[in-house]
Amino acid sequence: PRNPGNLKERVRERFEELDRDRDQKLTRDELGPGLFTLLNADGDDIVTLAEAQAGVRKHGVEAVQRAAEAE
After folding, report:
1. What DSSP string describes 6-70?
2. Higher-confidence residue: 3 or 21?
3. Cβ–Cβ < 8 Å for 36, 25
4. What is the DSSP letter of 4?
5. For the range 6-14, what are the long-range contacts, defined as Cβ-Cβ under 8 Å and sequence gap of 24 or more?
6. Are 8 and 31 in contact (CB under 8 A)?
7. R_g (Cα) of the chain, nearest Å
8. Cα dist. 41→1, 37, 54 in Å?
9. What is the pLDDT of residues 7-63, one digit of tens each?
């Protein structure tokens, strides 16, 4: 990405939108199975903001969008 800081902020904003119970972590129910699997790097059944940001950097915005749309 051209502006990684902007991407990081966009991921944070979307994370907060998806975090329905405001517990600072995303579950499979909040993300959907495909996106959850893509972003849950450590396999602990939750996705943190740091994991989400790292996952978007690693896989790219397009791959994350495809996983989200496949739900």
Report:
1. HHHHHHHHHHHHH-TT-SS-B-HHHH-HHHHHHH-TT-SS-B-HHHHHHHHHHH-HHHHHHHHHT
2. 21
3. no
4. H
5. 7/56, 7/57, 7/61, 8/53, 11/49, 11/52, 11/53, 11/56, 12/49, 12/53
6. no
7. 11
8. 21, 8, 9
9. 999 999 999 999 999 999 999 999 999 999 999 999 999 999 999 999 999 999 999
Residue 1, pLDDT > 60, answer no
Q: Which residue has the tokens 């975090």?
A: 19
Q: Which two tokens stand for residue 57?
A: 């950097």
Gap between the Cα atoms of 15 and 65, Å rounded: 13
